[in-house]
Every structure is written in structure tokens, then in C-alpha cells.
Amino acid sequence: MATARERLQSISWFMKCLKEPLSRxxxxxxxxxxxxxxxRFKSVAILDDEALLAVGAxxxxxxxxxxxxxxxxxxxxxxx
Length: 80
What we know:
Blueprint: H1 2-8, H2 11-30, H3 36-40, H4 49-65
């Protein structure tokens, strides 16, 4: 019981449980092996307001950079 309680309080354990099945599924679909999230995605700690603004800007401008939208205001995938 103590081990279960300790795991439930650990964000690292939660992220492992979240990422592992997703990475196995994606690797199976792509017919590849290895750490799926290693090169494609990464978790980043947002420690202050400046970092939060930077991440928000990145997310809102991403469709523009990808050529999906001409401006953030015209994208249906942003919060603007």
C-alpha cells in the first residue's frame, strides 16, 4: 500500500504511465522501435510567466509556421 501511495504522488511515475502506452502504439503504427517521445516530443517545465508566454506564443504561431494558416487569428487550432 505504501508503494502504491508513493507512486500516486509521483509526477514522474504518472508521466511514464501516460507516455509508455502511447509510444508503444505509435511505434507499432509506424513500424519502428525505440523511444517515441525522445526526438519528437518533450516535456518542459514552465517555471515563470515569461516561459508561459513563450510557450503560448509558440503554440499559437505553430499553424502559421506550418503553413496551415496565414495568421493566428485565422487558425481554428489556436486560442487567439
